[in-house]
Amino acid sequence: MRKLLIPCDGSANALRAVRYAATLAKDLSDVQLELLNVQDPLPQKVHAALSEQEIAQWQGGETDLILQPARQILDAEEVQYQVRSRVGSPANEIARHVHETQCDAIIMGTRGLGPVANLMIGSVATKVIHLVEVPVTLIK
Fold it and tell me: What are the pLDDT digits (tens) for 101-115?
């Protein structure tokens, strides 16, 4: 079974990538989808004021909120998928996830909702391409 990773930040391009992956999953019977959201670490001041449990709960809520539209797409297409979340630099965490879970390919949007640096076409996508050794399909 081939495992396809779909990093998702809730942006329109990321949701187009989810739709594309859903189409692939329906057409190919041996595909497993993983939906991944990477949260930025909380600022040190906030981190110091909250317990680890409160931080995990907040980040989990943010992931659920961001991934809700993607999950609705996959549920409507009746496609099986798993939800994953990580905290850190998006490109690095995507690459780490691919390596740790042995994903076979990545399908991702070219522009997300990240910092102003992402105004350059797909700075996260560009970094991911350089960090992984699996095929990456970019959806605009």
Answer: 999 999 999 875 555
